[in-house]
Amino acid sequence: MAADTERLRAIRYRDAFGHTWDGRGASPQWIVQATSAGQSLEHFVVERPQVEASDKLTRVERCDDPFAGTRLASIKSEGVEAA
To answer: What is the pTM for the complete model shown?
Structure first.
């Protein structure tokens, strides 16, 4: 199972038919044919999903918050919940 996950992470190029390539070693035939026909290699790049900043927010413990107990601690920011 770990090998399958690693293989999926390694995929850098994919075509519409599901052929994949990790970018290592000799180019597979489908890449050679597509680039010979004038298609750019960048066309086949697999986009990695970007993690949004709101997903990265972590909870701040009150003892580590330098503004705990002050007015600044009670102001709510957009997208951030006050504890």
So the answer is: 0.49
Q: Which residue did the predictor score with more confidence, 69 or 40?
A: 40
Neighbours of 19 (CB within 10 A): 14
Q: State the Cα–Cα distance between residues 13 and 37, nearest whole angstrom.
A: 17
Given a contact cutoff of 8 angstroms between Cβ atoms, the answer to whether 34 and 44 are in contact is yes
Which domain CATH number covers 16? Answer: 4.10.430.10
Helix (H, G, I), strand (E, B), or coil: what is residue 14? Answer: strand
CA distance 37 to 43: 13
Question: Using CA atoms, how far apart are residues 11 and 45, in angstroms rounded to an integer?
Answer: 9
Number of structural domains, the chain? 1
Closest CA to 16 of 46, 48, 50, 49: 46
